[in-house]
Structures are given as C-alpha cells and as structure tokens.
Amino acid sequence: MMTQTAHGGRSNIALIKTLTYLMFMMFAMTTDSVGVIIPQIIREFRLSMAQASSFQYVTMLGIAIAGLLLGFLADRIGRKRSIVLGLVLFTLNSYLFVIGDRFAIFIALLFFSGCAIGIFKTGALALIGDICTSTAQHTSTMNMVEGFFGVGSIIGPAIVIRLVAAGVSWEWLYVIVATVCASLVVIALLVKYPSTRPTESEPVDLVRTMKMLKDPYVVGFSAAAFFYVATECAIYVWMPTLLAKYHGSATLLAAYALSVFFILRAAGRFLGGWLIAQVPWAGALALLSLCIFLCFLGSVYGGINVAVYLLPASGLFMSVIYPTVNSKGISCFEKSEHGAVAGVILFFTCAGAAVGPFLMGLISDHFGTPRYGFLLATGYAAVLFVGLAANWSLNPARARLQRLDISEYAAVHS
After folding, report:
1. Contact assessment for residue 366 and residue 294, using Cβ atoms and an 8 Å cutoff
2. Cβ distance 98 to 172 under 8 Å?
3. Degrees to nearest 5, angle at CA 219 with 218 and 220
4. 2: three-class secondary structure by DSSP
C-alpha cells in the first residue's frame, strides 16, 4: 500500500485544492444537466420516460464500475497518475459527442464518460485526505469540493438551455466541457502532489477492495450515500418533467425550479463547510434529512401546486448530507486505503443515482404520471432519515474517527 510522507507538495496545497474544485465543477456540468437534456431526447428519439432515464443511469453505471473495480489505482499508481488518466479519457470521450447521431451511440459515450469520471474522481477523493490535517478538516474540505460541484450543476443546465434556445444541439455541452477538461489536464501535469511511498502491508488490488465490502463502516456509509443520491436524483432528473404541466401563479419559479434547486444546494454546501465545523455532524444530518423527507411528503400529498415550492427548496437541506457522509466514510480508514474506500462508496453512490431514477421512470410510465415516481422517492427520503437518525443516536463511528485523527494526522500537525 501507500502512505503520505511528511515532505513534498505542501507549498502547492492551495493549487491542488483549486484543481480539485474545478474537476468536480467540470464533470457536474455534464452529469447534472440530465434533467434538461431528457425532454430534448424524448422528443428527438421518441422515448418513454424509462428509456430516457438511461441518460442518467448509464453514466452512473460507468462511474460505479470504475469506482469499485479501479478505485484502488489511486492507492497503487498514485493520486496524480490516476487523476491525469481519468481526465485524459474524459476529454477524448467528450469530444466524440459531436459525431453521434443515434441514441445507442450516445449511450455508449455516456458509459465510457462515467468510467473516466470514476477513475479521476476516486483519485481526487483520495487526494483530499492527503492534504487535510484532521478528519474534521477533511469533512469541511469535502463540503467545499461539493460546493463547486454544485456550481457546475448550475452552469451545465444553463448552457444547455442557452444552446437549445439558440437552435444548437445539446451535444455541444460536452465539447465545451471537454475543452475545459483539457486545460485541467495541463494543470494537473504541472502541479506537484504530496509524495507517497509504499509500505509493507497487503497488496493494493481489487481483492483488497472486495474485502472492504464486509466492513460495517463501509456498508453503513455506502447505504447512506445510496439513499441520499436516489433522493437527490429524483429532483434533477424528474422534477422538470413533473413541473412541465404546471400552469399556476408560480410559472416563473416552475420554469427555473431546477436552477433554484442547484443554487440552493451549492450555497448550502459552501455554508456547510463552516456549519459542520461548528455543530455535531451526526445531529445536523439527522435534522436535515427530516426536512428533506417533509419536503417530499408535502409535494406528494399537496400536489404540483405545492411541489413547485417544496422540491426546489429541498436543495438547501440536501447540501451538506452527501459530502459529509462521503467524508466520514472515507475518514474511517487509513489514508493508504482512501482510494479503495472512495471507490466503494462511489459505487453505491452511483448505484443510487442509476437505480433510483430508473425505478421512478418505470413507475411513472406504468401510472402515466411522474407523481407516482415521486411517491417512491418519498420512500427513499424516509429510509435516509431513519438511517441518519439511528446514526445520530448511536454514533458508531465516533471512536474510530478519534483514533484515526491521532494515527493518521498527528504527523501532519508536527
């Protein structure tokens, strides 16, 4: 395995963080634009809602597979090499979108795009542990990273809307993102990363990753990530379709509901970096998950006239949950295992992002309205709340996080 040395790369911490922030912002521009692309491809290829949801779950499938099967690369070949490899593959794949003219071609490109994201994202997530001085700072930094992801979630859909309004295909979003990604490759090659050295422990390979699936901390935090993301994806994948038939007094809000959701989520994540440093994280997540559940419950029973307000507002409550769950799950392990752990949690994250919206699409098709899909999503939110409330009550990770604060970060403080 590998462990961080005390020297090397400390003068580049600010630049490394900035590069990490930009990476997350960049790929969010594509993954979180699905909600505004789906209505376009439904018309273009005459798809059902279940078929159109493949634009979401195929990408997530690629990320999940790469996270689980290749996450250990960040520990074996190093953070920098895995990040550069993933970014190069993502850049080349994204440029190919302009030559696509069939639905099957786009599906294939989205899958390989997901694989590339899975490679550089696990490298970036492992890198965060290398540049932080405590598990608390790790969580704060993760919230900042996801805040920039939230910014990308705003920019991407806005670009698609502008392209479509100008009569230009949504495919050019991927060309724009590929160009941004190419510049990040150059920066990543020039930046000096914290150095690592091998240790005498077990080999860094897929077998070790599979063993982690038996660890209760991996299972618990991965389950929380799964149900959170399934709940979140209900908003950015299907909310535009749900609100498409809204004709009430809040038509302007309905038109920009997804943008409002992303803005609130991004703002909340930037604030979350400060919030989690001030209050106990377990209690904060339990309370916020309750608010999310109430937003979904009110939307289902109040109908579209209530959903137009509550669903976008849920973004503020969602903001802190995923980066904190992800951070605490990764922080429950030694830094030399952060790449593999990040890959496992990423697998369940993407499983939630793929399975959740797909099942919603199936149910919506069966009953003829997306309202029933959101009834299922309310169930996702309920499970998330129950799990995080139990975590608040029992707080099983407290002792392990305290121990690793000493064993993994003491050298950084000295």
Report:
1. no
2. yes
3. 95
4. strand
Residue 339's SS3 state is helix
- Read off the amino acid at residue 339: G
Which residues is 3 bridged to in the sheet?
197
Q: Where are the beta strands (DSSP E) in 297-380?
A: none
Tell me: the pLDDT tens digits for 126-166? Answer: 999 888 888 888 988 898 898 899 899 889 989 998 999 99
Q: pLDDT tens for residues 324-382? A: 999 999 999 988 889 989 999 999 998 998 899 889 989 998 898 889 999 999 999 99
Helix, strand, coil % in the chain, rounded to nearest 5:
85, 0, 15
Q: What is the mean pLDDT of residues 40-56?
A: 84
Tokens of 272: 């979350």
CA distance 47 to 40: 10
The pLDDT value recorded for residue 11 is: 52
Tokens of 390: 């139990």
Around Cβ 301, how many Cβ atoms within 10 Å?
Answer: 11
Cβ–Cβ < 8 Å for 116, 126? no
CA-nearest of 31, 5, 107 to 346 is 31
Contact 122, 67 (CB under 8 A): yes
Q: List, as one string, the DSSP characters of 52-87.
A: HTHHHHHHHHHHHHHHHHHTTHHHHT-HHHHHHHHH
Using an 8 Å Cβ cutoff, are 2 and 199 in contact? yes
The residue written with tokens 């990490």 in the block is: 20
Domains and CATH numbers, the chain: 2-192+204-413 (1.20.1250.20)
Cα–Cα nearest to 351, from 61, 119, 69, 107: 61
102 Cβ partners below 8 Å, 6+ apart?
none
Amino acid identity for residue 296 in this structure: F
Q: Going along 95-201, which residue ranges are E strands?
A: 196-198
Q: Which residues contact 200 (CB under 8 A, 6 or more apart)?
A: none
402 is written with which tokens? 């305290």
In the numeric block, which tokens belong to residue 71?
């996450």
